[in-house]
Amino acid sequence: MRRGAFFRVRALSPAQARSALVKQTFLPMWDPETAAAQMKNLFRLADSGRVLRVFGPPSAENARRLQAALEAGLEEKEEQDLKAKPGFVLRRVAEEYMLMPTGENIAAFQGAVLLNSVSAFVLEQLQFPLSREELLCAVLAEFDTDRETAERDLDALIEKLKKMDVLEGE
């Protein structure tokens, strides 16, 4: 479950579910047997159950919407997640947003990229896995624009970020 400006329910693929569950579970690494048993249970849950990602502001209305969606089996279809790769830092310098590589990416990236406020917002959102539709909903909730323009601009930005090798698929 994630906070957001919009309400949305989405099914996760088994790989997405494994990733989400492992990131949100405490694993006692000092006890390898228990950690291994927990990992086995997490993977079994991800592979055999229905794991959903829920977005929305906490409210009684959204709780009722979630209950209705679960009872009706109306979760949205599985979608590919987008996420910013590690090794890049987003900074605001003198009223400008800059995407700067770190570590091994410095040599491959060859410089920083200036971004507008919308592109910077998208990269901030992509610190966590999101589908294209979830990202679009976040942009529409944050900026005053119509859906058609937002879709066109977001798709172009995603393609540019992929070409620059800033995104990873999950």
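That was protein one. Protein two is written in the same sequence-then-structure order:
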Amino acid sequence: MIRAGLVGLSLFASAAQAADCRLALLLALDVSSSVDAAEDRLQRGGLVAALTAPEVRAAFFAVEQPVALAVYEWSGRYNQEVLLDWTLIKTPEHLLFAAETIAASRRSHNDFPTAMGYALGYGAGMLQKGPHCLYKTLDMAGDGQNNEGFGPRSAYAEFPFEGVTVNGLVINGADYEAETGLIAFYKSQVLHGPGAFIEIAQGFEDYERAMRRKLERELTPPVIGLGAENPRTPPKG
């Protein structure tokens, strides 16, 4: 079993050497009007803390091939802003730079609805312009369902999502009636591609923990031969 695992990692490393990086990871943060100022601080600070957590840092550098990281925020139809443009995370210093860039960012919009289809289309464009990586993953974090313009299914039909996995971070909140079906919405309409999964944060106070778990799972190099249904092993705890 150990020998098979080593062979799998060797095959993965050989394939990754043909690309600029092993994973293009694009994170999308919800800054629609349902996210107030305090919640946005928890979201932004939670992402910074998750990126600098020891287990996430270890996952970034688990193998020699780097990860390309970018972050944008989204809300209404035409309200998307890049917080971190594509950055190859080759060293701990690059990761620290990415975290500090996000920590220094300021929210661009706070009074627009949740146009998730437009946000996905914007993410598809960013991935196309990004570095050539072995895998491409887009993360949609949000606390509400699409309520403006076309939805996720239309986005997947109209924008270039071939070879892209879309995961979700659901910020669940029992205080909001509109969020009662949020998990089902993400599972049925947002998740896309092989191995797609969601992590659930029980409110914005739980955002850091959920983001940390999700990043650790996404960044762990796949074990060749497990199949498309579970390309990465989820972390413990």
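Strands lie at 21-30, 67-74, 80-89, 133-142, 164-172, 198-202. Keep this in mind for the problem set.
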